[in-house]
Design a protein that fits this description.
Blueprint (H helix, E strand, L loop, with lengths): L2 H15 L3 H4 L12 E3 L4 H4 L2 E7 L6 E5 L14 E4 L9 E6 L4 E5 L6 E6 L3 E4 L6 E4 L8 H6 L6 E2 L7 E2 L31 E7 L15 H9 L7 E5 L13 H6 L4 E8 L2 E9 L8 E5 L2 E6 L39 H6 L1 H4 L10 E2 L4 E3 L3 E3 L5 E3 L9 E9 L7 E11 L5 E13 L35 E3 L2 E4 L2 E5 L5 E8 L6 E7 L6 E6 L7 E11 L3 E10 L2 E10 L3 E10 L9 E13 L5 E4 L2 E5 L3 E5 L8 E6 L2 E8 L21 H4 L5 E6 L4 E7 L3 E3 L4 E3 L1 E7 L6 H6 L2 E2 L5 H7 L3 E4 L16 H13 L3 E5 L4 E3 L5 H5 L15 H6 L6 E5 L4 E5 L6 H15 L4 E5 L5 H14 L4 E6 L12 H4 L9 E4 L9 H9 L7 E2 L7 H6 L14 H10 L4 E4 L8 E2 L5 E9 L14 E10 L5 E3 ...
Parallel strand pairs: 1-12, 14-24, 46-47, 47-48, 48-52, 52-53, 53-54, 54-55
Antiparallel strand pairs: 2-7, 2-12, 3-6, 4-7, 5-6, 8-9, 10-11, 13-15, 15-22, 16-23, 17-18, 17-23, 19-22, 20-21, 23-24, 25-26, 26-27, 27-28, 28-29, 30-35, 31-32, 32-33, 33-34, 34-44, 34-45, 35-42, 35-43, 36-37, 36-39, 38-41, 39-40, 40-45, 41-42, 49-51, 50-51, 56-58, 57-61, 58-59, 59-65, 60-64, ...
C-alpha cells in the first residue's frame, strides 16, 4: 500500500474519533471548483508538459499563490518549479516555494509587471540518450531567489506561512498528513503572515495538449476529502464507483477528485445503440479490507420503458461519439470536472418504472440477455482458445477497475433496459448495482468497432477467430498410412514408443519442388533412455499405441511404455506445416507411499541423424553454418536458447526442449527483462547438457541429457519437445522476383516510377502514425490503399505484437488486467509514460516527432486475440494486402491464425518478417532464423537485417540469412548488403533503404526473363555451373527453350538461356573458369555466348568465350547471360 493511502487511512481513524474536528478544519481543504483545466502552447522539451497559469492584478514586490495542482506524482518537494512571465518569456528568479506536496504548492514570488500572467511549470525534465529509447529525469528543486529579497520578506524556502504570523514546517499540511493545528499555549513568534502578501489568482492548470492532461481521472482527491468520504461510509469494507468508458480508471493508489465529488453509487446509466457492444467500468476501492479475488455476475436487462415513437418526418438521432479517451477534453476555463450526464441521480433512479414499482418487466418483453455480458478482469478466453478464470485481487487501500461489456442485440427495440450487476469479493459481502441502458437507434452493424472511443473492441480479447485445424496454401491435408503421417514434402513414421522411427523429405535438391524420391534424415529411431544409478540402461517394455485424432490439419497419437520402475507416456501431434509436438511424461509405476526416492543417473533423448543430412547446424549459441564434428551446450537463463536445427537445404529438423513451465520470453533487446523459464526436467538444476557428436562414419548423434536426479513416488517429469521438419515448402523464385518492395510511405506515383509494386507502410507515417495500433487514421489509410490498388499495386502495413503505442484508447483498460497484457518492469522512458503510467512497465520504442511512446507486451496473452481481430478488421474495412512484421513476439499458433485471416480476406496477401541480428548479450545470443523458425511456414519473405555479417562465409549466408533451407527467400538490409553475394541467393537490398537501388538489377532480370527461369543454387548437386573454387560460387537461373521452366527438377531441360550469378568470398582477386554442363542447359557449346551486361555500380559490359578465365574481385562478382 502506498504511503499516501496509509496516511489516508490514518486520517480516517482519527476522523472517526473526532468527527466534529472535520468542521473545524473547513478552511484547509482545497475547493474542487477553485481551478479549471485546459491546454496551452509552449516548448515542452524545455518546460515539461504541465503548468499553472497565475494572474497578478496589482503591483507588488511579493505576492503569494496557492496552486491546487492535485498531483499524482510522488515527492513533488524534490522537483523543480520554473516561473516565467507570460508577456516576455523571461524567467522570474525571485520565487520562494513554501510548501510542495501532492495536493498543492504554496509560493511567494516577485512579479515583474502587473497586472499580468505568469506560468508555473512544475514537471520540468531532461531527456538524454538514444532518441528512440530516451532516459528522462525530472529536474531537482532549485532555489533561485536572491537572499536580500528573501530576507526583506522574512521568507525561508519550504517553510509555510502562518495565518497569524508564524511559519510552520513545510509538509505539516501536506497530502496524506493531518493539517497542523494551532496551539493556544504558544505565542505567535514574529515573522511574515499570509496577510502580508497580496494573493495572486490561479486562472487555469494546463497541459501541453489534451492527451497529456491529468484531468479528470488523475486529479487526486485530498487526504481530507478521502477521510470525509470514508467517514460517510463507516462500515464499508470496500466502495464501488461505476464509471463511464470515456474516463478510464488510471490510478490504483488513490481516488480521483471526480469520485469524491460524486461519491460511491449503486447505479449506473449509459446510452447505447442497437447492436452495440457497450462498455463501462466499476471501480472497486478496497478501503478497509484487502480483496483476495473478485467476480462479477449479471442478470438480464429487461425493457422497463419503451422509447417514444419519433415524431413524423423526424429521423432518430445517433448518440454522440465520445472524444478519444486517450485525449480527455480540456474543459477550458470554467469547465466542470463532472457533468450531470456522467451519473444517474437518485431522482432519476426513483423515477424509473422498476424503482417506483410500476411497469415491472414481463418475461415476454424484450430483454438484453446476461449471456451477452462479460467482465474482462475476472474471466476470458486465452490465446490458445481455452477459457480461464482470472484472479482479480485488490490490495488494501488500492483501486481496481472492473471493465464490463454488454452486447446489445440489434433486434431489441429502443427503450430503457434495467437489471442488476453483482460484485462478489471473496470473503466479503456482495454488492449489487442497478444498470440502466437507454438503447437508441440506429443499429451499429459492427458493434461499435469503427469508433475506437466506444471501447467495444475489448471483446476482441476473447476472440477465437481462425482457431481451427484448417490448412492453408501451399500445404496439403495430412495423410496417414499405417504409422506414417505425411505432410507437404515430408513424412514421419512413428515407432511403437510414440517417437519418430523415420523422418523423410521429398523436396528436390534445388528446393523448387517436391519430388518422388525420399531422403532419410535418421540413421536410427529416436530414443528416450533411462539409466539407473550405476549408469545401466533400463530395459523397456512397450505398451499400447493408438491414434487419438485424425483431421486434415492435425493427427495425434498416444503410446505408453515401461522403463524399469518408470512409466513413459508419449502424446504426439503432427500438424500440416511439419510441426510435431511431443508431450512426454515420466512417472513412478504404482510406487507405494511412502517409498524412498528412485536414484537414476540420467534420462536422455537421443536423435541419431545421417551425417550427410546433418550438413549444417544452427542454434544453442552456434552461428548457422557447417556443422562441427563435436559440440556441447548447457542451460543458461541469460541465453535465449532452447532449440537446435540440424540439416541440409532439402532435409532437416529443429528440436526445441520444453516443460510445463514454458512461457514465451521477451525477444530482441528486451529479452533479459523476461528471460526463458528453464525447463525443470531438461535443466535439472544445472545437470542438463546437450551435445552433438559424430559417432560413426554415417551417424551424427544429438543428445539432450538431463543428468542424475531422484524421483519421488509423487513426481511426474515432463520431457516435452517440439520438432520442426524442414524445409516447410518449396521456394518460389518466380513470385519472389516479381514482387518488388518499396519500404516507405511515399506517393503511389513515386513508388510506381521506381519500379516497385508492393508498398510497406511503416509506423510513424501519416496513415499509420502509432506503433502497432493502425486504427486511428482509417479513412486516410484506405484512400491510399485504394489508389495503389487502382495501379495494380499492393500495400502492406507495419502491425505486430511486441510493444503497443500509448495512443491506444484501451491502454488503461489493458493495464487494469495486471501483467497479463503488459510486462512488468522498471518504468522510465518518455515523460508521458512516467507521468501517466508511473511505474511497473517496460518502456519501448519512442518516436520523437509524434511523441509516440510504446510499452512492452507480455510474452503470450489475450492481446493476441485482439491483434487477430484487428487484422481481420483491417482486411475487411481497409483492404490491406498483408503485414510487415518487425520481429515476432507471438507463437506459431497465432501466426497460423494470421495466415488464415489474410488468405480468407485477401487471397495473395503477403507477410514479410524483419529481424535484426539477435546474436548479442542483450538479446540472449539468439540466431534470428532459429528463434523464429516456427513462423516460417506462413511467411512469404525475410528481411535479415541490421547487424548481420555480410562478410561471413557462404554457409552462414545460406543458413542464417537467406531462408532457403526452410522454403523462403529474402532481402538484405545492413549497409545495403552485398549485391553480388546476394544474387547467389536471389537477394537484393530493399528500396529505398541504404541508398542502393535494386531497380538496376530488376531491369536485367526483366530483360533476361527471370520470371520464366528455374533457380539452381550452388548448394544443389545438380547446379549446371561450377567454378572449381570453393571461395567463388555460382547460382544459375535456367530458362527452358520455348516456354516456362518446369515446376521441379531445377537445372535440367534448359535451352532457353541462363543467367549465372557469380560471387567471391576470396580475400584477393581470383580467376575462375566456368565448368558448364551444356547438356543440362540444352545449349550447343559451339554456338554459346557469355556476356556481362552493363549494370550501374555493379559491373561494366564484357564478353567471354566458354573456357575463358574470368577475373573476380574480392567481395564482388558478375551477372553473366549465357545464350
Amino acid at each position: 500500500m502506498s504511503p499516501y493511502l496509509k496516511k489516508n487511512l490514518l486520517v480516517l481513524s482519527l476522523s472517526l474519533i473526532f468527527v466534529g474536528a472535520l468542521a473545524a478544519l473547513a478552511d484547509v481543504p482545497i475547493s474542487p471548483s477553485e481551478v479549471c483545466y485546459g491546454t496551452g502552447v509552449w516548448d515542452a522539451a524545455k518546460f515539461g508538459n504541465h503548468r499553472a497559469v497565475i494572474r497578478v492584478e496589482g503591483q507588488a514586490d511579493a505576492v503569494r499563490v496557492r496552486i491546487p495542482w492535485r498531483r499524482r506524482d510522488t515527492k513533488p518537494e524534490k522537483k523543480n518549479v520554473v516561473v516565467v512571465e507570460a508577456a516576455t518569456g523571461a524567467q522570474v528568479k525571485n520565487v520562494c516555494p513554501l510548501a510542495l506536496n501532492r495536493e498543492y504548492g504554496d509560493f511567494v514570488f516577485q512579479p515583474v509587471t502587473a497586472p499580468g500572467e505568469y506560468y508555473y511549470y512544475y514537471l520540468t525534465n531532461t531527456s538524454k540518450g538514444n532518441q528512440h529509447y530516451p532516459t528522462v529525469t525530472y529536474n531537482p528543486l532549485e532555489i533561485t531567489a536572491e537572499d536580500p529579497w528573501l530576507k526583506k520578506w522574512g521568507l525561508s524556502p519550504l517553510a509555510e506561512l502562518s495565518p497569524r504570523g508564524r511559519q510552520a514546517p513545510s509538509g505539516a499540511a501536506a497530502s496524506g498528513a493531518e493539517p497542523a493545528k494551532e496551539s493556544a499555549a504558544l505565542p505567535a513568534p514574529p515573522g511574515p503572515s499570509s496577510a502580508d502578501f497580496p494573493e495572486a489568482r490561479v486562472v487555469e492548470i494546463q497541459s501541453i495538449d489534451a492527451f497529456n492532461s491529468f484531468h479528470p481521472m488523475e486529479v487526486i482527491a485530498t487526504a481530507m476529502e478521502t477521510a470525509r468520504l470514508l467517514a460517510e461510509h463507516p462500515a464499508a469494507p470496500y466502495l464501488l464507483f461505476p464509471e463511464d468508458r470515456r474516463f478510464s480508471v488510471r490510478m490504483k493508489d488513490g481516488l480521483p477528485m471526480r469520485w469524491v465529488e460524486a461519491g460511491p453509487r449503486n447505479e449506473f446509466a449509459g446510452e447505447a445503440l442497437r447492436g452495440e457492444f457497450f462498455t463501462f467500468q466499476i471501480g472497486v476501492f478496497a478501503c478497509r479490507s484487502a480483496i483476495e479475488s473478485t467476480d462479477v455476475t449479471f442478470e438480464d436487462l429487461k425493457l422497463t420503458q419503451p422509447a417514444p415513437s419519433p415524431a413524423r418526418g423526424k429521423k432518430p438521432q445517433d448518440s454522440s461519439v465520445h472524444p478519444h479517451p486517450s485525449s480527455p477534453p480540456s474543459g477550458g476555463r470554467g469547465s466542470s470536472s463532472v457533468s450531470a450526464d456522467d451519473k444517474l441521480t437518485s431522482n432519476q433512479a426513483s423515477a424509473s418504472p422498476v424503482a417506483s414499482g410500476q411497469g415491472q418487466a414481463k418475461p415476454t418483453l424484450p430483454l438484453i440477455p446476461a449471456s451477452g455480458m462479460h467482465s474482462f478482469n475476472t474471466r476470458g478466453v486465452n490465446w490458445n482458445g481455452k477459457p480461464f478464470v482470472k484472479t482479480c485481487a485488490v490490495p488494501l487501500g488500492q483501486v481496481q477497475p472492473l471493465w464490463c461489456g454488454v452486447q446489445v442485440p440489434r433486434e431489441v427495440p429502443p427503450g430503457a433496459y434495467e437489471g442488476e450487476i453483482t460484485v462478489l469479493p471473496r470473503g466479503l459481502p456482495p454488492t449489487s448495482l442497478r444498470l440502466r441502458l437507454d438503447v437508441k437507434d440506429p443499429v451499429l452493424e459492427d458493434a461499435g468497432d469503427s469508433d475506437p472511443s466506444r471501447m467495444s473492441r475489448l471483446r476482441w480479447l476473447d476472440s477465437r477467430i481462425a482457431f481451427d485445424d484448417d490448412i492453408v496454401p501451399p500445404f496439403t491435408p495430412l495423410r496417414v498410412e499405417d504409422r506414417t503421417v505425411s505432410c507437404l514434402g515430408r513424412s514421419v513414421t512413428v515407432d511403437d514408443t510414440g517417437l519418430p522411427g523415420r523422418l523423410t523429405s521429398f523436396f528436390t535438391p534445388e528446393l523448387t519442388g517436391v519430388g518422388t524420391t525420399g531422403r532419410e534424415l535418421l540413421s536410427a529411431p529416436f530414443a528416450l533412455i533411462v539409466s539407473d544409478a550405476e549408469g545401466n540402461e533400463l530395459a523397456s517394455t512397450l505398451g499400447k499405441f493408438e491414434f487419438t485424432k485424425k483431421t486434415p490439419g492435425a493427427v495425434s497419437w498416444r503410446a505408453e511404455s515401461q522403463s524399469g520402475p518408470l512409466t513413459l507416456t508419449v502424446q504426439g501431434t503432427m500438424e500440416f506445416d511439419g510441426f510435431v509436438e511431443f508431450k512426454v511424461s515420466v512417472s513412478r509405476t504404482a510406487a507405494p507411499v511412502p517409498s524412498p526416492p528412485l536414484e537414476i543417473s540420467d534420462i536422455r533423448l537421443e536423435i541419431p541423424l545421417l551425417r550427410d543430412a546433418a550438413r549444417y547446424m544452427m542454434g544453442m549459441g552456434y552461428k548457422g553454418g557447417l556443422r562441427p564434428a563435436e559440440f556441447s551446450w548447457t542451460w543458461d537463463r541469460t541465453l535465449n536458447q532452447d532449440a537446435l536445427w540440424l540439416g541440409d537445404v532439402n532435409a532437416g529438423l529443429q528440436v526445441s526442449l520444453r516443460d510445463e513451465n514454458y512461457s514465451r520470453p521477451l525477444n530482441t533487446n528486451f529479452y533479459l527483462s523476461k528471460p526463458l523459464n528453464l525447463p525443470p526436467s531438461w535443466w535439472n538444476d544445472g545437470e542438463g547438457i546437450c551435445a552433438v557428436q559424430e559417432t560413426s562414419a554415417s551417424t551424427v548423434l544429438f543428445t539432450a541429457s538431463s543428468g542424475p536426479r531422484r524421483i519421488r513416488p509423487s513426481d511426474t517429469l515432463h520431457f516435452n519437445f517440439n520438432l520442426l521438419l524442414t524445409p516447410f515448402k518449396p521456394i518460389d523464385p518466380r513470385t519472389h522476383f516479381a514482387t518488388r518492395f518499396f519500404h516507405a510511405y511515399k506517393p503511389v506515383d513515386e513508388v510506381a516510377h521506381a519500379g516497385a509494386n508492393t508498398i510497406n507502410v511503416h509506423h510513424a507515417t501519416d496513415i499509420n502514425p502509432y506503433i502497432n495500433y493502425p486504427f486511428l487514421r482509417p479513412a486516410e489509410m484506405k484512400a491510399y490503399i485504394d489508389e495503389a490498388h487502382a495501379r495494380g499495386m499492393k500495400v502492406k502495413i507495419y502491425y505486430t505484437i511486441r510493444e503497443l503505442s500509448n495512443r491506444a484508447p484501451e491502454l488503461f483498460a489493458l493495464r487494469s488486467l495486471g501483467d497479463e497484457i503488459f510486462s512488468r518492469g522498471p518504468g522510465g522512458g518518455f515523460s508521458w509514460l512516467q507521468e501517466h503510467l508511473v511505474s511497473d512497465y517496460i518502456a519501448a520504442w519512442f518516436v520523437p516527432e509524434l511523441k509516440d511512446a510504446a510499452i512492452i507486451n507480455s510474452g503470450m496473452s489475450r492481446w493476441h486475440n485482439y491483434y487477430l481481430e484487428g487484422l481481420d478488421w483491417l482486411v475487411r474495412n481497409i483492404g490491406i494486402d498483408g503485414l510487415y512484421i518487425d520481429d515476432v513476439a507471438f507463437d506459431r499458433t497465432t501466426m497460423k491464425r494470421v495466415r488464415k485471416i489474410l488468405d480468407c480476406g485477401r487471397p495473395g496477401a503477403l507477410i514479410d518478417l524483419h529481424s535484426a541480428n539477435q546474436f548479442n548479450p542483450r538479446d540472449g545470443f539468439a540466431s534470428s532464423a532459429n528463434l523464429y523458425l516456427e513462423h516460417f511456414p506462413y511467411l512469404n519473405r525475410l528481411w535479415f537485417g541490421e547487424y548481420f555479417d555480410y562478410n561471413a562465409a557462404p554457409d552462414y549466408w545460406l543458413v542464417e540469412i537467406s531462408g532457403i533451407p526452410f522454403g523462403l527467400m529474402g532481402e538484405m538490409l545492413q549497409d545495403g548488403g552485398n549485391p553480388w553475394r546476394g544474387m547467389v541467393y536471389g537477394m537484393t537490398n530493399r528500396l529505398p533503404w541504404s541508398g542502393q537501388d535494386p531497380s538496376r538489377l530488376w531491369k536485367v532480370w526483366d530483360e533476361f526473363g527471370i520470371g520464366e527461369a528455374e533457380m539452381a543454387g550452388w548448394w544443389s548437386p545438380n547446379c549446371p555451373v561450377r567454378t572449381g573454387n570453393p571461395y567463388v560460387l555460382a547460382t544459375v537461373y535456367v530458362k527452358k527453350r520455348g516456354g516456362k521452366a518446369g515446376a521441379a527438377g531445377g537445372a535440367t531441360g534448359g535451352g532457353g538461356g541462363a543467367m549465372i550469378a557469380l560471387a567471391s568470398w576470396a580475400k584477393e582477386r581470383t580467376e575462375v573458369r566456368l565448368d558448364i554442363d551444356w547438356k543440362a542447359l540444352g545449349i550447343d557449346v559451339s554456338a554459346a555466348q557469355i556476356m556481362a551486361p552493363a549494370i550501374a555500380d555493379f559491373q561494366t559490359e564484357a564478353q567471354f568465350h566458354p573456357g575463358d578465365p574470368i577475373s573476380v574481385d574480392p567481395g564482388k562478382g558478375w551477372i553473366l547471360i549465357l545464350k
